[in-house]
Specification:
By secondary structure, this protein is an alpha+beta fold. It contains seven helices and six strands.
Length: about 220
């Protein structure tokens, strides 16, 4: 879930940071917690750090525009805070986030996309589920006109349940007809709408993982 501290908790963290070395600023590195990619490097002052920790979205200090800017304030590609980690000298911070959309202004997933030696593309793993769930939660808390999740949420729980029912029937039909691509497609749809339902019910995705782990331990004991 998105990390949001209260004012006192945030101030306690801010007080640990050494802003003196760079005249009131600290460098920050932002990493996508769903795939470990380094997304960007930026700078913060005390105010933007406080905002980031309390709002749960990345805020930076723009050295060129001389102002605070919320990541995604124009594009909607917000960085949802998962954790903040100080380095050994307390003068740099690593932030782990769930990224909505592209991080780089060029449209690339990460600002670091110009390697000297070409790297192998990483395979998508199960962490994509957590990433999508965080986006769904954000779209429910902060609805937008363009968001399908926001529109679906406004229709109410019954609309989501209907979608789950429809997609389940389509999955059964695809499986009976032995159509692999359709099976994957319909299973993905079901998973998506289940995530929406969990978010509507204010249930944490971690509860599903815990239940799976519990069942696994029971069966393999």
């Amino acid at each position: 879930m998105v990390l949001q501290l209260n004012e006192a908790e945030a101030e306690k963290f801010v007080e640990k940071v050494n802003f003196e070395k760079m005249n009131g600023l600290v460098p920050v590195v932002v990493q996508d917690s769903s795939n470990d990619k380094v997304l960007t490097q930026a700078f913060m002052n005390k105010e933007t750090l406080q905002l980031t920790l309390t709002k749960g979205k990345m805020h930076y200090w723009s050295r060129t525009r001389k102002r605070i800017w919320l990541k995604g304030e124009e594009s909607g590609h917000h960085s949802l805070l998962q954790n903040a980690i100080l380095d050994c000298d307390n003068d740099a911070i690593l932030f782990k986030v769930q990224q909505i959309g592209a991080c780089c202004h060029t449209g690339q997933e990460t600002c670091f996309h110009n390697p000297v030696i070409a790297e192998k593309e990483r395979l998508v793993d199960a962490r994509i589920i957590e990433r999508i769930f965080e986006v769904i939660v954000d779209r429910i808390k902060n609805p937008t006109e363009k968001s399908y999740v926001s529109k679906l949420h406004r229709k109410g729980e019954d609309a989501v349940l209907q979608k789950i029912g429809e997609e389940t029937t389509e999955l059964v039909l695809a499986a009976k007809a032995n159509r692999p691509k359709e099976i994957v497609h319909e299973a993905t749809d079901i998973l998506f709408f289940i995530l929406v339902l969990l978010a509507q019910k204010n249930l944490k995705l971690q509860e599903i993982f815990k239940q799976l782990e519990h069942r696994h331990q029971e069966k393999t004991r």
